[in-house]
Design brief:
505 residues, alpha+beta, DNA polymerase, domain 1, hpI Integrase, Chain A, 4 domains, three-stranded antiparallel sheet, 20 helices, 42% helix
């Protein structure tokens, strides 16, 4: 009978950790939940061993393979889960077949083929399917997964770590692989091929710490130079003349359409006349598989009206979208515009997708709110619009901060007359106290002390008294305008007029 236990997990030793010797072995000393704890160091002394909060057991399945299975952090729940698992294993040994039993018997290659068929049935493009399957197969081959029972989080975690540290891949690439295998696991669960997602605990890395390909913008002057030189260029790129490429660049800058989407724009989808010109794409031709009716400016509509005249079907067909970055890079080189520039956060690249950045940033600079910018960018999350695509130029930020108030000492410090000693007014309160509290000395009464700061009557300075006091002090405004205990005094020393006449007698 398998027994439950807490297995050890390895954690990286912090740089400032304190190491001690206990029971002839090196330990790390930490503070957790207000108490001191000690954990033994693993081999290499770069990691330490900490018991997992979940209970686990070594289980031998019906095919004879022994595997460690994790359950719950609750021991009673883990015991029930272990009993259910052992029951299913015994049923499988007895020949009782279940959908889950048949699933575990099939290799992952068959499940991946079924997943590919499901993606294509849902009208996913060839490039999308190729990328997803390639990422999943790369992870499964690297981890040695052959059957669904082999799927586990720990090997994937170690593979992705080596993928970044040894192979030099970026955090974004590692996250893309993690997202792909999680998507495959969810599909397996939805089709009753897995009981749960074995990769659920794995979290994506922080892309901001390792951004390899940050896209930059083109300035207005650079855009003008690019369009002028491209229009005069005698060269063609995959069947596109200079005039064709200028039309593509202007359409990308004026709509935010991606390269693949622009290649599907038709003359019939361009509504260029009337008060609201638009370029429409059906749902099958957009990235998010939703129809797009994109408004465009009157200038772009007038330009495209001459370009589209007499044409039918797709305006820019062909294979150029697969090499759109090369097309733009060549035209930038002819115009003398650098492909990479150094921005405030590092090196920025000007590829074809940067034209979409230019469009979204221009929309926000025009005064559009975030909802309008998100709608024109066709995003479902405003954080994507503002965080990844929108750009703020240095000169714009400088102009913004220069419009803020000029906070200098001369503008902030009040014109305070020099302090001179003032005599006591005979009521236990000096004129300086009047200024500090806002209560005239004439309103103070005998018996005022620390325990009864309101005095016997608990009066506060009236608005007339405060105005007179300000006038006497030649415009000096006290730091505290009202008596600080006025609210308490009003409640504790209010008149007794609310009582009945009999009670007053």
């Amino acid at each position: 009978m398998p027994t439950l236990f807490h297995f050890d997990q390895t954690h990286r030793v912090p740089a400032d950790a304190e190491l001690v010797e206990r029971d002839g072995r090196s330990h790390i000393k930490l503070r957790e939940s207000g108490r001191t704890v000690y954990y033994p160091l693993a081999s290499g002394r770069t990691k330490y061993l900490k018991p997992s909060p979940k209970w686990a057991a070594w289980v031998r399945f019906a095919d004879g393979i022994r595997k460690r299975v994790s359950f719950s952090t609750n021991r009673a729940a883990s015991e029930r889960m272990l009993a259910d698992l052992l029951k299913r294993i015994e049923e499988e040994k007895a020949g009782i077949r279940t959908p889950e039993t048949d699933t575990r018997a099939k290799p992952l290659s068959i499940h991946l083929a079924d997943w590919e068929a499901s993606l294509r049935a849902n009208r996913r493009g060839d490039e999308y399917v190729r990328w997803k399957l390639g990422r999943v197969r790369r992870v499964f081959d690297g981890c040695g997964f052959a059957f669904p029972r082999d799927l586990a989080a720990a090997p994937v975690e170690q593979f992705l770590h080596a993928f970044r540290e040894i192979d030099g891949r970026s955090v974004q690439t590692s996250n893309d692989h993690l997202q792909a295998i999680k998507q495959f696991a969810r599909w397996m669960i939805d089709n009753d091929r897995l009981p749960k997602n074995p990769f659920a605990r794995l979290k994506p890395g922080n892309v901001a710490t390792d951004e390899r390909h940050r896209r930059g913008e083109l300035t207005d002057a650079e855009i003008g130079m690019l369009l002028a030189t491209t229009l005069a260029s005698p060269d063609t790129f995959r069947g596109l003349t200079g005039a064709d490429r200028v039309a593509i660049y202007r359409a990308a800058l004026g709509t935010g359409y991606r390269a693949e989407e622009l290649s599907r724009v038709t003359a019939e989808g361009c509504s260029l006349a009337g008060p609201n010109p638009t370029i429409t794409l059906p749902a099958a031709d957009t990235k998010n598989k939703r129809p797009a009716v994109q408004p465009i400016s009157f200038d772009l509509a007038a330009f495209l009206a001459h370009y589209v005249a007499g044409k039918t079907g797709r305006l820019w067909p062909g294979t150029w979208p697969t090499r759109s970055a090369d097309m733009l890079t060549g035209d930038l080189a002819v115009a003398g515009i650098p492909y990479t520039v150094t921005g405030p956060l590092g090196v920025e690249h000007r590829d074809f997708h940067s034209l979409r950045n230019c469009f979204i940033s221009a929309v926000i600079r025009s005064g559009a709110d975030l909802k309008q910018a998100m709608t024109l960018a066709r995003h479902s999350d405003p954080r994507l619009t503002a965080g990844r695509y929108a750009r703020a130029r240095a000169e714009e930020l400088t102009a913004v901060v220069n419009r803020t108030p000029n906070l200098t000492v001369s503008t902030l410090a009040p014109s305070v007359p020099p302090s001179v000693p003032t005599p006591d007014n005979g009521r236990g309160q000096s004129e300086t106290d009047e200024i500090r509290t806002g209560v005239p000395a004439s309103s103070a009464v005998e018996g005022t002390n620390e325990r009864n700061p309101c005095g016997d009557k608990g009066l506060r300075a009236s608005e007339d008294d405060q105005g007179q006091l300000k006038a006497e002090r030649k415009g000096f405004e006290p730091l505290v305008r009202f008596y600080p205990y006025a609210a308490l005094a009003k409640r504790c020393f209010r008149p007794l007029s609310h009582l009945s006449s009999e009670m007053r007698r």
